[in-house]
């Protein structure tokens, strides 16, 4: 799991920094407010971390690909996201597709709280080059409830598509 600061953490830290400027006029009050602000930001960030860790551990991702596709003909890549019963997750999904595929990079939003813990996402891809093309991991990105932290995690979903000339792929 990779963590990075969320948008609200950046705002909170700059707010705590601005409030600490009171310390120029009243040093005792400034230090007290700075310590309280840092403690509050730290506590909220820890809460976000624990939430994100629990949510990412309860998720599973499966990818479905055809075994054969025609050169530069569309085929469908499908992901199924499943969460544990008590999991209320929304976020973004990004797949590592072969470098020659089109589109190269897409990000899909998902919300498992609306779909009873399971959601299927489809995407149409094209590969203009013949051969066997490997797909990499699927990445999920989630935000904590306070948006102080964002977490990303790769899910290994091995897959490959064999691309044949158009006339052979339809047989």
Task: Spell out the key features of this protein.
five-stranded antiparallel beta sheet, alpha+beta, 171 residues
Radius of gyration: 22 Å
In the sheet with the most strands, the strands line up as: 1-10-9-5-6
Strand content: 35-45%
Biggest pleated-sheet summary: 5 strands, antiparallel
Instruction: Note the run of SSEs as H and E.
Output: EHHEEEEEEEEEEH
Low-confidence blocks of residues: none
- Summing up helix and strand content along with how strands pair, one would put the structural category as alpha+beta
How many β strands by DSSP? 11
Determine the number of helices (DSSP H or I, runs of at least 4 residues): 3
Estimate the mean pLDDT confidence.
Answer: 88
Helix content: 25-40%
Identify the overall geometry.
Answer: elongated
Question: What would you say about this model in short?
Answer:
The chain has 171 residues and is of the alpha+beta class.
Question: How does this structure look, described?
Answer:
It is a single chain. The strands form three sheets. A five-stranded antiparallel beta sheet has the order 1-10-9-5-6. By secondary structure, the protein is of the alpha+beta class. A hairpin with a 5-residue loop joins β9 and β10. α1 packs antiparallel against α2. The chain has three helices and eleven strands; from the N terminus they run βααββββββββββα.
């Amino acid at each position: 799991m990779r963590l990075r600061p969320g948008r609200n953490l950046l705002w909170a830290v700059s707010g705590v920094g601005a409030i600490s400027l009171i310390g120029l006029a009243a040093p005792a009050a400034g230090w007290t407010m700075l310590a309280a602000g840092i403690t509050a930001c730290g506590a909220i960030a820890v809460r976000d971390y624990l939430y994100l860790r629990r949510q990412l551990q309860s998720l599973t991702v499966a990818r479905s690909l055809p075994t054969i596709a025609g050169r530069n003909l569309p085929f469908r890549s499908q992901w199924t996201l499943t969460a544990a019963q008590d999991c209320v997750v929304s976020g973004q999904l990004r797949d590592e597709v072969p470098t020659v595929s089109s589109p190269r990079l897409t990000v899909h939003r998902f919300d498992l709280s609306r779909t009873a813990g399971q959601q299927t996402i489809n995407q149409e891809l094209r590969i203009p080059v013949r051969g066997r093309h490997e797909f990499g991991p699927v990445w999920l990105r989630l935000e904590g409830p306070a948006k102080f932290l964002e977490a990303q995690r790769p899910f290994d979903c091995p897959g490959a598509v064999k691309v044949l000339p158009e006339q052979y792929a339809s047989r």
